[in-house]
Amino acid sequence: MNILIAPDSFKGSLSALKASMIMKQAFLDEYEGSHVEIVPMADGGEGTLETLIYATGGKQISIEATGPLGETITTEYGILGDRKTVVIEIAAISGLPLVPKEKRNPHNTTSYGVGEVILAAINEGYREFIIALGGSSTNDGGFGMLQALGVSFLTEEGSPVDQYGRSLQYITQIDWNTINPLVFECTFKIASDVNNPLCGENGASFTFGRQKGATKEQIIQLDQQLLSFSNLVESATGKDVKDHKGAGAAGGLGFAFLHLNGIITSGAELVAKEVNLIPAIKKADWILTGEGQSDRQTLYGKLPYYIAKLAKQEHTPISLVSGSLGDGYEQLFHYFTSCHTITIGPMTLEQCFNQAEELLYHETKNLARLLSVTKKS
After folding, report:
1. Which pTM value belongs to this model?
2. Domains located in the chain, CATH noted
3. Which NCBIfam families match (predicted)?
4. pLDDT of residue 45
5. Which among 26, 84, 94, 38 has a CA at the least distance from the CA of 58?
């Protein structure tokens, strides 16, 4: 039997690559004669860089950049196996996990480091970029990144503003002509499954502001600031994109990249193409995918659902192995042949994280035992 293992990361505990390797080992230990292929997956969020580097035989480049709180951090960008395409993961530069919970506040975070990493890659001669937008701690409309790329943002008195989200309220003038001209020699493919516009009740602030530490009062203020900021940018560039699908992704970084001629596309589709997922699905007799928690929200565009739709097109059975099954998981049976949770008995979240490798191994091994009997029958 040809087994394809293509999970997302189990956020907080296992990367997609680590989860894939554990699941493969479980099959090899239990199901003699099975042929197992792993295709770690991502959807533009955390883990996208690692997934693409593994799949294409690329490499990681270590670099120092400005972190989300303005500190210098050591981060990385990737070079795909084609040796010409750069992968930048927003979560690794200005990501929410890099900000302690007690310090989360969109007024005090910045996307400046993203621009620094882009410029570093440009200076190394690269012009093709894949940007994984998920996991940002910012809500600055990409202002910090644009500032690092050379755009001038000034107060009413003509003074430059600092790089943090709080500065949006003071910007009254924008000089777009100071941007590094090499930026417009580049192509930016934006991996994101977020379709929110920049502003309004479905925009960046109202949808994602709370998880980034914003209070209810701040969220209203942040939305108004993004609206004012976007009007200034659009006046400077002549491009009206604030209502474009995905403009509100990563706190408005989607909006900024649209002004750099970026093309926003489904993160899952982009990654699937780069890792050759569809040919692997066509060869599979059974598919395993997984994620940290599965519930009814899985059916609203999460990665396992995307893979399940591809499996259905090929009439291939697919099993979902998750850290936990939440409210409405019964709806998943319309798309998955079987659904499994790795937890055993009552467990705290900390216990689940600490034992994730062992739990995933044993549940996958149980599934391998079942499939081995199914094949024999």
Report:
1. 0.91
2. 2-40+276-376 (3.40.50.10350), 48-268 (3.90.1510.10)
3. glycerate kinase
4. 86
5. 84
